[in-house]
Each structure stands twice: as C-alpha cells, then as structure tokens.
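Lab notebook, page 48
Experiment: co-folding of the full assembly
Goal: obtain a model of how the components sit together before planning crosslinking
Operator: M.T.
Materials (sequences as entered):
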Amino acid sequence: MIMDGKFGKYGGIFVPELLIPALEELESAFLKYKDHKKFNADLDFYLSEFAGRPTGMYYAKNLSEKLGCKIYLKREDMLHTGAHKINNTLGQGLLAQYMGKERLIAETGAGQHGIATAAVGAMLEMPVDVYMGSEDVERQKLNVFRMEVSGAQVIPVESGSRTLKDAINQAMRDWITNVDNTHYLIGSTMGPHPYPAMVKHFQTVIGKEARQQIMEKEGSLPDAVIACVGGGSNSIGIFSEFLDDKEVELIGAEGGGHGIESGNHGATLCAGTEGVLHGSLSYVLQDNDGQITEAHSVSAGLDYPGVGPEHSYLKTIGRARYEAITDDEALRAFQLLSKYEGIMPALESAHAIACMEKYAKQPENKGKTILVNLSGRGDKDMFLAAKLLGVEV
Amino acid sequence: MNKVESYEEMFKRVQKKNEGAFVPFVVAGDPDFGTSLQIVQTLVNSGADALEIGFAFSDPIADGPTVQDADVRALDEGMTTDRGFEFIRRIREFTSIPIGLLVYYNLIYKRGVDRFYQEAHENGINAILSADLPPEEAEDAVKAAKKYGVDQIFLAAQTTTNQRLKKISEFSSGFTYLVSVMGVTGARKEVKTSTVDLIKRIREHNELPIMVGFGISQPEHVQEVILAGAEGAIVGSAIIDLIAENLQDKEKMMVEISKNAQKLKEATKM
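Observation: model returned without errors.
Model output:
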C-alpha cells in the first residue's frame, strides 16, 4: 500500500491477507486514474449524460419563510436511480473497467446502491451480482425486481442477521474468492482503504457544485451544512468542500430509530464505541465483548452498525457534530418537505431535513443560511411511509 | 496445569517420529460449552498434536458457512470472551499441547490489546491469529505478543508477494499459517498444486514451520501438504461438519469425530 488509509487513527486495512493484493491493485489504479485526463473526461460524460449532473440547488422559500432561515437544498434526489449513489457507482464502475475487471459485485440494504450498480453494470456491459440480506429481499421485493430487470443477479444472504452487514460480509467473501476478475463496488465511505478515500473522491462532486452554487446565490458561505449519515458518503461528499472553512458548521443526522435510550437505533457516532468492522477502525455498535449488534432505523440506508472512518475522525477533532434523529422525527420531516415544497425526500434525507428544522428553530440560528443535502428522493419509500402514516394504498 | 508445550517443542516431537502435525480447529462453545469441551478431549485423545480454538464472532468475513454456523451456535449458547478464556483453562486441565487462538481483531481491540494478550497467556494460550489483522495493522498486537510470550501468527497466501512474506516473517513467531486456496474457510475436494510452490517460496523468506489450512478436509489432503513439505495441517470445517451433522446424537458425534481425527492423524505419518 502506498498510503495507510488513516483519518487520524481511524480507517486502515483490517482484512484477511488474501485481500491485500486486491486492495493494493485498487489503490494503485485509483491513484493512477483519479487525475487521469481521459478517465475524468469519460466520468464527466457519464455523470452529465447518464446520471443528470450537475444537480440544482433549490432555495426552499416556503420553508425558509416558515422557519425564519435561508434554506437551500442540494438536489441529489434529481439524479438517475434516485440518489447520490450513482456518483460513486459510475466512478468505481468505470475504474473497474479501466482495470480490466470483468465482473462487479455489490452489497445493498434497501436496494438503492444495488439498483445504481445494476444500472451502471448494464450500461458498461458488466455482469453484476448483488448481495442482499434475505430479510431485506423480503422487505424490498420491488427493488429486487428493479435490479433484476437491469440484468443483475440478486443473491439473498441467509447468514447472521440477514441484513446489510451480512450482505457486506458475503460480498467480501465473494471478493476473497474471485479477486482476479471481480471488482467489489462498495456503496459508501466505509470498508478498508482505499474505499473511504475513493468513495469520498467520487462524491466530492456534490460539495464542489454546492459550494459554487451557494456562492453564486448568496455571495457567501452557508452558516451550516447538514446531511444524513449512514455509511457516510453523501455527507462526506458535501462536507468535503467546506472542511477548511471553520466558520461553516457541519452537522450529520444519524438514524435515531426509536431513540438512543431504546437501544434500537443506527446512531453509531452518537451512541457507539470504537471498533473494527468491515475492514476499518471506526465507531461501531457493539456489546462489551466487541460482538457487533444490530442497528435499527426506519430508513434502510441509515440502518447500519458502522460508519465511515472519516466521520469518526471529524467527530473526534470536533470539526463535525452528529445528531440522532428518530424515526418519528424523520417521518414528520418527510411530510413537512412534501407539503411545503412539493418535494418528497427519501426517508434517509428526511433525517437531514428534521435536523435542519431543529437547527433553524434554535433562537441563536435565526436568519442563518442552511445548506441541506437532499441525497435522495422518496419514491422508493412511499409504501412504507403510507403504512407508517396509517394510510392504505 | 502442567508446563505448556511450545510449538517448537511440538514440531520437534512429531518430526522425531517422522510425522507432520495434525491440528484440528473448532469454535469454543460449539454447540455448547460442555459438548465443545468433550469434542476437544476427543480430538486430543485421537491424536491431535496441537489445537486451534476459535472465539466466535458476529461478523466472520474470512469464514465460510460451516464456521459461520458454528459461531452462531456458540454465541447462541452464551459464549463470551470471558467464557472463551474459561474454556481454554478447562482444556489445560487435561492437555499441555500447544493451543492457538483464532479470533477476529475487534474482540481483541474491544478488550484492550494488552489485556487480551495478558489473559490469553495466563489462561494457557500459545499463539494468536487474527484473520483480519495484516502486519500493517499489527503493531500493538505484536508488541503485546512479545511482552507476554505469545506467538503472533500471520496468514500467507498464493497472492502474497515476496516482499510481504519478508514482512510477515519479521512479525511472526511460532509458525506461518499458509492459506492453501483462494477463498474463505470450508471443506473442499482438492488441494491446489500451487501449494507446493508456495511452501518453497515461503521457505526462502522464513525459517518458521509452516502449517497449511483453509480447505483441508480429507486424509489425502493432509498427506499431500505434508509431502509437499509443510510441518502440519490444520483441519477445521471437516470436523465442524461432523458437529453440525450430529447435533441430535452427541455419542455418535464423538465417535465420528474420533474416527475421522484418527484417520487425519494417520495421514501425517510418512
């Protein structure tokens, strides 16, 4: 490895020996192509023509008026396949092709990353196998169908808790076995080095655009940038371009589930402890022995007992702070944004909206400019939202 | 507790008899504490030269379905790190052969690296291998291992470069754990011929004895790797399969394990 992949003490390469050469190969390809003219020209082409970049920045005037702040929404929800995920899947898919890999594998929780990978696989003509916990397969039948229509094979994972973390375990086992011809397309800023750095790189496009857009519209930086945090890729993507601007508050909204005190949540940074999971040292949800415990959030994208190592670092040095938003608060924010602005957020992104509302309601924050990353759209969550709101569809 | 035999002493003992070492692997507490202890006793009585004992983990990324299921059975039966060390103490009541611990790094990290190695040593563990701890991340572990006289074991695989083999040899003691196949743990039909080449390559960088694991399930595999020049063979999933197949009949489980272990030991004799 050329770099140690550390953010402070977090990150690293806690993987079986069999994966080290694959990580070395990936790191070397990433370092070679990240500033490569033709690679970036290809990626820019697909980001624009296939995914629909740049995304807009919308001034949410009704909510701004109601809350007494200036609220801007970075519209990642407008992207192809419905969320920011496509930025990373296009980047890694193209990188895999440049590396001469023939096959893509991915993990997915609710299916969003699986769908984005399936779409990119279809477009690049690469076969895709998606690992998905059998519990999730059952809960997300429509998304399974969406992946399959795009030609991906969805492999249900029966081990462990049969959810996202077990899908990641199984994808890693596949990669260990088929490392020669296969690229493991991890969906977030987690996993062993170089993934956290690489996924961040492909998601910084959010922050770059957002910074320019807010400067054009406001002529100054926002007071706060707010994004939801599951693994942490959309938040790192938008935070990245404001890290050096100490006056900009960076706030991450975690899945608070039924509340931290209930024990049923996905608030890894707010309530977890340091540990090693899926290849890196970061905050994790675990018991006293270090056995990983199960996360809960109404939003599948935040339902993960780990978090990207850079977030652990940003938390420790105090550059970003993290708040747990409960299922109920997120559901109310889902309705709020839909009703006031005509924009239905994904339940993940609704956590960021709820966090923004709390922030805006603090008296000392009156009149401030708040930038929220609207990471995904709510279409995928309509059945669940209806059910939770007691509406029969 | 009698004096614990070191790996060095054990390898000398078997080499004197012109044999390779037969080292079975089981998960502590699978399918429950008492039965698991009885299984280990059976293995020792059937000719095990050393033992590999695993502490169950919730997310074992280097293991195939057989070991994953064993982990689940052990965790469901209430295995904890404390109970794991207790298990080792109970083994030490009846045998002094070397015990290597297989444990995912988070269990070590959470307890505190220094404390974990101290307790491992005090409870009679000879060596520790973390499947998800490459030399790059092993500074604390290696330091603690030296401090408490525990052997630190690393994996070497077909894909491991010569440069890495050198690094691994600098950090390890006891033996080198050679992964014979590309993939996770689990019983397989054949052993790859490239294993022979890899053993030769490791020898050029490392004087430690070599034990081959992952995918060794038949007496023929054991014989093959010993003939290829390895000092020992580690057999896990093939024994754990016998546990899984005979959960309803403990007596039969012990008979089957004993029968198979004897055959596997027999195959180490040249």
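Interpretation: Chain A is about 45% helix and 20% strand.
Next step: discuss with group before ordering constructs.
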